Amino acid sequence: MKKNLLVFGSLTLAVMTGVIGCKSNDGPAMPQDEVIKDSTKSGTLSNLNLILSNIPAPSAISKELVKEGIQVNSSILNTPDKASSYSGNFAQAINMGIYGADMGYLASYNQMQQATSYLIQVGKLAQGLGITSAYDQKLMDQFKSATTNKDSIDIVIQTAFDRAQKELYSNKRASTSTIIFAGGWIEGLYIATNLVKDEKNDKNKDLYSRIWSHVYAFSYLQKVLTDYKASNPDCANLLTQLQPLFDASSKLSDGGLSLNDVQNLKQIVTGIRSKLI
Protein backbone atom coordinates (compact mmCIF):
# COMPACT_ATOMS: atom_id res chain seq x y z
CA MET A 1 0.00 0.00 0.00
CA LYS A 2 1.44 3.33 -1.02
CA LYS A 3 1.50 5.99 1.63
CA ASN A 4 -0.03 9.49 1.82
CA LEU A 5 0.01 11.74 4.90
CA LEU A 6 -2.31 15.69 4.28
CA VAL A 7 -4.86 15.20 5.59
CA PHE A 8 -1.25 13.93 8.59
CA GLY A 9 -1.56 15.80 5.54
CA SER A 10 -4.38 16.71 3.63
CA LEU A 11 -4.16 12.04 9.00
CA THR A 12 -3.86 15.78 5.70
CA LEU A 13 -6.10 13.59 3.77
CA ALA A 14 -4.23 15.36 6.94
CA VAL A 15 -5.06 11.83 8.63
CA MET A 16 -6.01 13.12 5.55
CA THR A 17 -2.09 15.43 4.67
CA GLY A 18 -2.42 14.61 8.68
CA VAL A 19 -4.54 12.78 8.65
CA ILE A 20 -2.06 11.93 6.65
CA GLY A 21 0.95 12.75 8.33
CA CYS A 22 2.76 9.77 7.02
CA LYS A 23 2.62 10.46 3.36
CA SER A 24 5.45 10.16 0.93
CA ASN A 25 5.39 11.44 -2.64
CA ASP A 26 3.64 8.18 -3.46
CA GLY A 27 -0.05 8.26 -2.66
CA PRO A 28 -2.76 5.65 -2.55
CA ALA A 29 -4.67 5.68 -5.80
CA MET A 30 -8.28 6.70 -5.68
CA PRO A 31 -10.57 3.67 -5.98
CA GLN A 32 -11.08 3.16 -9.69
CA ASP A 33 -14.61 1.87 -9.26
CA GLU A 34 -15.73 5.15 -7.73
CA VAL A 35 -16.99 7.81 -10.13
CA ILE A 36 -16.85 11.39 -8.94
CA LYS A 37 -20.05 13.02 -10.17
CA ASP A 38 -19.55 16.50 -8.72
CA SER A 39 -16.54 17.44 -10.86
CA THR A 40 -16.72 20.38 -13.23
CA LYS A 41 -14.49 18.72 -15.82
CA SER A 42 -14.04 15.17 -16.99
CA GLY A 43 -10.36 15.38 -16.04
CA THR A 44 -10.99 16.02 -12.35
CA LEU A 45 -10.67 12.33 -11.48
CA SER A 46 -7.18 12.33 -13.00
CA ASN A 47 -6.36 15.59 -11.25
CA LEU A 48 -7.26 14.12 -7.86
CA ASN A 49 -4.96 11.22 -8.54
CA LEU A 50 -2.28 13.82 -9.34
CA ILE A 51 -2.84 15.58 -6.03
CA LEU A 52 -2.64 12.29 -4.14
CA SER A 53 0.56 11.29 -5.88
CA ASN A 54 2.42 14.59 -6.05
CA ILE A 55 1.69 16.68 -2.98
CA PRO A 56 4.39 15.81 -0.42
CA ALA A 57 3.28 15.07 3.10
CA PRO A 58 3.85 17.80 5.69
CA SER A 59 5.59 15.09 7.71
CA ALA A 60 8.32 14.88 5.05
CA ILE A 61 9.42 18.39 5.99
CA SER A 62 9.00 17.65 9.70
CA LYS A 63 11.30 14.66 9.49
CA GLU A 64 13.89 16.78 7.72
CA LEU A 65 13.63 19.40 10.47
CA VAL A 66 14.37 16.65 12.98
CA LYS A 67 17.40 15.50 10.97
CA GLU A 68 18.75 19.04 10.89
CA GLY A 69 18.56 19.24 14.68
CA ILE A 70 15.98 22.03 14.68
CA GLN A 71 14.24 21.97 18.03
CA VAL A 72 10.54 21.23 18.29
CA ASN A 73 8.37 24.31 18.72
CA SER A 74 4.75 23.48 19.44
CA SER A 75 3.91 27.13 20.11
CA ILE A 76 3.63 27.82 16.38
CA LEU A 77 0.94 25.16 15.89
CA ASN A 78 -2.81 25.65 15.92
CA THR A 79 -4.23 25.55 19.44
CA PRO A 80 -5.12 21.89 20.18
CA ASP A 81 -8.61 22.54 21.52
CA LYS A 82 -10.44 24.49 18.83
CA ALA A 83 -12.06 21.78 16.73
CA SER A 84 -15.48 22.31 18.30
CA SER A 85 -15.38 26.00 17.35
CA TYR A 86 -15.15 25.27 13.62
CA SER A 87 -18.49 25.04 11.87
CA GLY A 88 -19.36 24.49 8.25
CA ASN A 89 -17.76 22.19 5.70
CA PHE A 90 -14.95 24.57 4.71
CA ALA A 91 -13.69 25.47 8.19
CA GLN A 92 -13.87 21.87 9.33
CA ALA A 93 -12.12 20.49 6.25
CA ILE A 94 -9.30 23.04 6.07
CA ASN A 95 -8.58 22.72 9.78
CA MET A 96 -8.71 18.95 9.61
CA GLY A 97 -5.78 19.23 7.24
CA ILE A 98 -4.05 21.78 9.46
CA TYR A 99 -4.47 19.69 12.61
CA GLY A 100 -3.30 16.61 10.74
CA ALA A 101 -0.09 18.36 9.70
CA ASP A 102 0.44 19.56 13.26
CA MET A 103 0.00 16.01 14.51
CA GLY A 104 2.52 14.75 11.98
CA TYR A 105 5.00 17.40 13.07
CA LEU A 106 4.70 16.42 16.73
CA ALA A 107 4.89 12.71 15.94
CA SER A 108 8.12 13.30 14.01
CA TYR A 109 9.62 14.63 17.24
CA ASN A 110 8.15 11.75 19.29
CA GLN A 111 5.90 14.20 21.14
CA MET A 112 3.21 11.56 21.25
CA GLN A 113 1.14 12.88 24.14
CA GLN A 114 0.69 16.17 22.33
CA ALA A 115 0.19 14.38 19.01
CA THR A 116 -2.65 12.39 20.55
CA SER A 117 -4.41 15.61 21.56
CA TYR A 118 -4.30 16.67 17.91
CA LEU A 119 -5.60 13.30 16.77
CA ILE A 120 -8.61 13.87 19.04
CA GLN A 121 -9.25 17.21 17.34
CA VAL A 122 -8.95 15.58 13.91
CA GLY A 123 -11.50 13.00 15.05
CA LYS A 124 -13.94 15.73 16.08
CA LEU A 125 -13.63 17.44 12.73
CA ALA A 126 -14.01 14.14 10.93
CA GLN A 127 -17.25 13.59 12.81
CA GLY A 128 -18.45 17.04 11.76
CA LEU A 129 -17.67 16.19 8.15
CA GLY A 130 -19.43 12.85 8.42
CA ILE A 131 -16.27 10.74 8.17
CA THR A 132 -17.23 8.80 11.26
CA SER A 133 -15.88 5.38 10.27
CA ALA A 134 -12.34 6.71 9.88
CA TYR A 135 -11.90 7.78 13.50
CA ASP A 136 -13.65 5.38 15.80
CA GLN A 137 -12.62 4.68 19.39
CA LYS A 138 -10.76 1.55 18.35
CA LEU A 139 -8.43 3.57 16.13
CA MET A 140 -7.88 6.13 18.90
CA ASP A 141 -6.93 3.33 21.29
CA GLN A 142 -4.56 1.83 18.71
CA PHE A 143 -2.84 5.18 18.25
CA LYS A 144 -2.36 5.63 21.99
CA SER A 145 -0.98 2.11 22.41
CA ALA A 146 1.44 2.57 19.49
CA THR A 147 3.16 5.65 20.90
CA THR A 148 6.48 3.86 21.42
CA ASN A 149 6.67 2.36 17.93
CA LYS A 150 6.79 4.78 15.01
CA ASP A 151 6.15 2.04 12.43
CA SER A 152 2.97 1.10 14.27
CA ILE A 153 1.95 4.75 14.43
CA ASP A 154 2.39 5.07 10.68
CA ILE A 155 0.19 2.03 10.12
CA VAL A 156 -2.57 3.39 12.37
CA ILE A 157 -2.52 6.76 10.66
CA GLN A 158 -2.51 5.18 7.21
CA THR A 159 -5.50 3.06 8.19
CA ALA A 160 -7.42 6.16 9.20
CA PHE A 161 -6.42 7.91 5.99
CA ASP A 162 -7.56 5.03 3.82
CA ARG A 163 -10.92 4.88 5.59
CA ALA A 164 -11.47 8.63 5.36
CA GLN A 165 -10.46 8.79 1.72
CA LYS A 166 -12.74 5.92 0.73
CA GLU A 167 -15.69 7.44 2.57
CA LEU A 168 -15.23 10.86 1.03
CA TYR A 169 -14.83 9.48 -2.47
CA SER A 170 -17.75 7.08 -2.17
CA ASN A 171 -19.93 9.97 -1.02
CA LYS A 172 -18.85 12.02 -4.06
CA ARG A 173 -17.17 14.63 -1.89
CA ALA A 174 -13.87 14.92 -3.69
CA SER A 175 -13.91 18.70 -3.31
CA THR A 176 -13.88 18.24 0.47
CA SER A 177 -10.86 15.95 0.10
CA THR A 178 -9.11 18.67 -1.86
CA ILE A 179 -9.75 21.26 0.85
CA ILE A 180 -8.37 18.90 3.51
CA PHE A 181 -5.24 18.34 1.43
CA ALA A 182 -4.91 22.10 1.00
CA GLY A 183 -5.02 22.57 4.77
CA GLY A 184 -2.20 20.09 5.24
CA TRP A 185 -0.16 21.69 2.45
CA ILE A 186 -0.58 25.17 3.91
CA GLU A 187 0.35 24.06 7.43
CA GLY A 188 3.38 22.08 6.27
CA LEU A 189 4.75 25.13 4.48
CA TYR A 190 3.89 27.37 7.42
CA ILE A 191 5.77 25.14 9.89
CA ALA A 192 8.86 24.86 7.70
CA THR A 193 9.17 28.53 6.82
CA ASN A 194 8.76 29.53 10.47
CA LEU A 195 11.58 27.25 11.61
CA VAL A 196 14.24 27.70 8.93
CA LYS A 197 16.60 30.43 10.10
CA ASP A 198 19.84 29.79 8.19
CA GLU A 199 20.80 30.42 4.59
CA LYS A 200 21.10 27.34 2.41
CA ASN A 201 24.36 25.45 3.00
CA ASP A 202 25.81 21.95 2.71
CA LYS A 203 24.26 20.93 6.04
CA ASN A 204 20.69 22.04 5.40
CA LYS A 205 20.47 21.63 1.63
CA ASP A 206 18.19 18.58 1.99
CA LEU A 207 15.78 20.63 4.06
CA TYR A 208 15.71 23.34 1.42
CA SER A 209 15.10 20.65 -1.18
CA ARG A 210 12.14 19.34 0.85
CA ILE A 211 10.71 22.83 1.10
CA TRP A 212 11.10 23.29 -2.63
CA SER A 213 9.30 19.99 -3.34
CA HIS A 214 6.47 21.14 -1.09
CA VAL A 215 6.29 24.56 -2.73
CA TYR A 216 6.43 23.09 -6.23
CA ALA A 217 3.28 21.05 -5.54
CA PHE A 218 1.27 24.28 -5.64
CA SER A 219 0.62 23.69 -9.34
CA TYR A 220 -1.24 20.45 -8.64
CA LEU A 221 -3.33 21.98 -5.89
CA GLN A 222 -4.08 25.02 -8.03
CA LYS A 223 -5.20 22.81 -10.91
CA VAL A 224 -7.68 20.81 -8.85
CA LEU A 225 -9.10 23.85 -7.05
CA THR A 226 -9.56 25.48 -10.45
CA ASP A 227 -11.50 22.45 -11.67
CA TYR A 228 -13.88 22.77 -8.72
CA LYS A 229 -14.27 26.53 -8.51
CA ALA A 230 -17.33 26.71 -10.75
CA SER A 231 -19.28 24.10 -8.79
CA ASN A 232 -17.93 24.63 -5.27
CA PRO A 233 -17.82 28.13 -3.72
CA ASP A 234 -15.44 26.94 -0.99
CA CYS A 235 -12.87 25.84 -3.56
CA ALA A 236 -13.28 29.11 -5.46
CA ASN A 237 -12.77 31.07 -2.25
CA LEU A 238 -9.70 29.05 -1.26
CA LEU A 239 -8.22 29.47 -4.73
CA THR A 240 -8.53 33.24 -4.35
CA GLN A 241 -7.01 33.21 -0.87
CA LEU A 242 -4.05 31.12 -2.01
CA GLN A 243 -3.35 33.12 -5.17
CA PRO A 244 -0.62 35.32 -3.59
CA LEU A 245 1.18 32.18 -2.47
CA PHE A 246 0.76 30.55 -5.87
CA ASP A 247 2.12 33.71 -7.54
CA ALA A 248 5.17 33.77 -5.26
CA SER A 249 5.80 30.05 -5.70
CA SER A 250 5.68 30.23 -9.49
CA LYS A 251 8.67 32.61 -9.48
CA LEU A 252 10.95 30.29 -7.50
CA SER A 253 13.35 27.58 -8.60
CA ASP A 254 14.97 24.76 -6.69
CA GLY A 255 18.52 25.85 -7.33
CA GLY A 256 17.81 29.46 -6.43
CA LEU A 257 15.73 28.98 -3.27
CA SER A 258 17.30 31.27 -0.69
CA LEU A 259 16.62 32.23 2.90
CA ASN A 260 15.05 35.43 1.60
CA ASP A 261 12.68 33.33 -0.53
CA VAL A 262 11.76 31.25 2.51
CA GLN A 263 11.12 34.35 4.60
CA ASN A 264 8.93 35.82 1.87
CA LEU A 265 6.91 32.60 1.70
CA LYS A 266 6.66 32.66 5.49
CA GLN A 267 5.11 36.11 5.46
CA ILE A 268 2.55 35.16 2.80
CA VAL A 269 1.56 31.77 4.18
CA THR A 270 1.33 33.09 7.76
CA GLY A 271 -1.10 35.77 6.62
CA ILE A 272 -3.25 33.26 4.75
CA ARG A 273 -3.22 30.76 7.61
CA SER A 274 -4.25 33.37 10.19
CA LYS A 275 -7.56 33.77 8.34
CA LEU A 276 -8.20 30.03 8.25
CA ILE A 277 -7.65 29.00 11.87
Description of the structure:
With 277 residues, the protein is mainly alpha-helical. It has one domain (44-274). It has helices spanning 44-54, 58-67, 89-108, 112-129, 137-145, 150-170, 174-195, 205-216, 218-228, 233-250, 259-274. The longest helix has 22 residues, at 174-195. The radius of gyration is 17 Å and the shape is globular. The two termini are 32 Å apart. 48% of the residues are buried.
Indicate the topology.
Blueprint: H1 44-54, H2 58-67, H3 89-108, H4 112-129, H5 137-145, H6 150-170, H7 174-195, H8 205-216, H9 218-228, H10 233-250, H11 259-274
Helix pairs in contact: 1-9, 2-3, 2-7, 2-8, 3-4, 3-7, 7-9, 7-11, 9-10, 10-11
Oligomer class? single chain
- The shape, in one word, is globular
Domain module tally: 1
Structural class: mainly alpha
Strand fraction band? under 5%
DSSP helix count? 11
Summed over residues and divided by their number, the pLDDT gives a mean of: 76
Keywords:
277 residues, mainly alpha, 11 helices, globular, disordered N terminus
Short description:
The chain has 277 residues and is an all-alpha fold. The chain contains eleven helices and no strands.
